[in-house]
């Protein structure tokens, strides 16, 4: 008996230009929305932005970014945690009622100020993207090396520690149960498909159930919300002088988010090219589109800033989902954007989100803010930064102490160096730390130690 040759299993997956059937497109798009939802909504809750507007702009910003990127770069855009610290710091200073009352779930006066900064962030990303297209990323890395960007990322997370504990203190039991549940889901559900990618959502749901048992959930926001409503779109407060200090503060945080966005692009490029190889198609090599990617990032943030959504970034969670499902279809991501836009009009959904007790968000924040800081350390590791080199030690040490110490130890987290119009009350600690770190790095560029016969110390072998 002649044995028949085995037939190779067909390769299943969608390249960026592929368009699945409508049924597949809707189901895959909804899965993308489900993946981005927990973190995107949590940022809105923490910063007192409108949940409906944040969902709306997340979807619209994603669609705009995909079009700007010429439908070549499949990334989904949600709210960025990197901007939380400076937004809370400056909103608390200029509009105290935003965070002075725990019952406040949306603070339009503070949001309008922040919108100017978010739009400036978009402009900053666009300019950096255009610059990279002209001079190349290697030249930019000289002025924004990993020792700067990594340490700025660290202080962005750790400087929020006080905020996380303040939220958790409203009910320590609920907060710590939420924290433990989130950690358990994050660790033990790895590699379990879609459910393994939603530890924050599962932690929030678990904490919410615990809060129900403790009797601290108030359903008034749900009762008072209409089923359908227009998102609370606001326009930036360009005419308010206070907005411009916030604008610089917020825009400078892009120093930490640009490396994150670039890392996501490299990651997606590897996955897409591997699928292209399996499908016997030509590799796309989107890793070469760093500049275009940042321009797309900036356009997404410009939409967020203009309409009142949270500052955004492309989402690693959604990238992981695409890698697992081998679905990189831009058409699917645009469908997901359309679904997110539609959810922005569901008033009951926003009302339900606003019933999440502060203690639950506190438990989630302890974990999430720490992870943000750890990502900065991961950047230093992945870039093999030489921490035996006194230059790097000096830059990193100064950024850490000024950023963390200033945010936790100074009144309102402000250094008392007043600059008319931009920083009339002082410079936010994270912003000041980033500026000083950049200036020290510039000193070493223009006056290199090698000029004085100093030899660079060798790094540890990796």
Describe this structure in words.
This protein is mainly alpha-helical and 462 residues long. The chain has one domain. 65% of the residues lie in helices and 2% in strands. The chain has 20 helices and four strands. The strands form two sheets. It has a two-stranded antiparallel sheet with strand order 1-2. Helix 7 runs parallel beside helix 19.
Topology:
Elements (H helix, E strand, L loop, with lengths): L21 H26 L3 H18 L8 E3 L4 H11 L2 H4 L7 H28 L1 H7 L2 H13 L2 H8 L3 H17 L10 H16 L5 H5 L17 H11 L1 H25 L11 H18 L4 E3 L1 H10 L4 H14 L3 H7 L4 H25 L7 H20 L4 E2 L11 E2 H18 L16
Antiparallel strand pairs: 1-2, 3-4
Helix pairs in contact: 1-2, 1-16, 2-14, 2-16, 3-5, 3-12, 5-6, 5-12, 5-14, 7-13, 7-18, 7-19, 7-20, 8-18, 9-10, 9-18, 10-18, 12-20, 13-14, 19-20
Order of helices and strands: HHEHHHHHHHHHHHHEHHHHHEEH
Biggest β-sheet, characterized? Answer: 2 strands, antiparallel
Number of strands: 4
- Distance between termini? 55 Å
Which percent band covers the strand fraction?
A: under 5%
Low-confidence stretches: none
Q: Cα-atom Rg, whole angstroms? A: 23 Å
List the domain count as a whole number. Answer: 1
Helix content: 55-70%
- Put simply, the count of helices is 20
Summarize it.
The chain is built from 20 helices and 4 strands. The protein has helices at 22-47, 51-68, 84-94, 97-100, 108-135, 137-143, 146-158, 161-168, 172-188, 199-214, 220-224, 242-252, 254-278, 290-307, 316-325, 330-343, 347-353, 358-382, 390-409, 429-446; strands spanning 77-79, 312-314, 414-415, 427-428.
């Amino acid at each position: 008996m002649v044995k028949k040759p085995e037939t190779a299993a067909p390769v299943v997956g969608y390249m960026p230009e592929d368009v699945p059937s409508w049924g597949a497109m809707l189901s895959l798009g909804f899965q993308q929305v489900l993946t981005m939802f927990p973190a995107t909504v949590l940022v809105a809750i923490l910063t007192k932005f409108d949940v409906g507007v944040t969902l709306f702009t997340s979807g619209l910003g994603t669609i705009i970014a995909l079009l700007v990127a010429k439908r070549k770069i499949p990334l989904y855009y949600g709210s960025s945690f990197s901007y939380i610290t400076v937004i809370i710091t400056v909103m608390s200073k200029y509009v105290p009622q935003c965070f002075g009352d725990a019952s406040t779930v949306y603070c339009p006066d503070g949001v309008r100020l922040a919108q100017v900064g978010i739009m400036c962030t978009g402009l900053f990303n666009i300019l950096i993207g255009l610059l990279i297209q002209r001079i190349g990323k290697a030249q930019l890395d000289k002025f924004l090396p990993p020792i700067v960007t990594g340490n700025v990322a660290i202080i962005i997370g750790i400087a929020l520690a006080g905020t996380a504990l303040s939220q958790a203190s409203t009910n320590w039991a609920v907060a710590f149960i939420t924290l433990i549940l989130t950690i358990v889901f994050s660790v033990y559900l790895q590699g379990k498909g879609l459910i393994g990618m939603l530890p924050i959502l599962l932690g929030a749901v678990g904490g919410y159930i615990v809060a129900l048992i403790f009797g601290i959930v108030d359903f008034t926001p749900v009762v008072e919300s209409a089923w359908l409503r227009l998102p609370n779109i606001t326009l930036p407060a360009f005419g308010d002088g206070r907005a411009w200090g916030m604008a610089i503060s917020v825009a400078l945080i892009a120093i930490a988010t640009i490396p994150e966005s670039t890392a996501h692009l490299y990651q997606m490029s590897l996955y897409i090219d591997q699928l292209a190889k399996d499908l016997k198609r030509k590799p796309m090599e989107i890793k070469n589109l760093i500049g275009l990617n940042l321009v797309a990032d900036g356009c997404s943030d410009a939409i967020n800033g203009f309409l009142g959504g949270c500052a955004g970034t492309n989402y690693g969670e959604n990238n992981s989902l695409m890698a697992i499902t081998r679905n990189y279809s831009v058409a699917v991501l645009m469908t997901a954007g359309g679904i997110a836009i539609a959810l922005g009009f569901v008033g009951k959904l926003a009302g339900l989100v606003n019933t999440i007790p502060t203690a639950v968000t506190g438990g989630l924040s302890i974990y999430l803010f720490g992870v943000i800081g750890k990502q900065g350390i991961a950047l230093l590791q992945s870039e093999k930064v030489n921490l035996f080199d006194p230059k790097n030690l000096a830059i990193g040490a100064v950024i850490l102490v000024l950023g963390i110490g200033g945010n936790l130890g100074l009144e309102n987290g402000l250094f008392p160096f007043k600059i008319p119009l931009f920083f009339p009350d002082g410079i936010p600690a994270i912003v000041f730390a980033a500026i000083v770190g950049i200036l020290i790095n510039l000193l070493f560029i223009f006056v290199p130690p090698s000029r004085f016969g100093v030899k660079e110390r060798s790094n540890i072998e990796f």
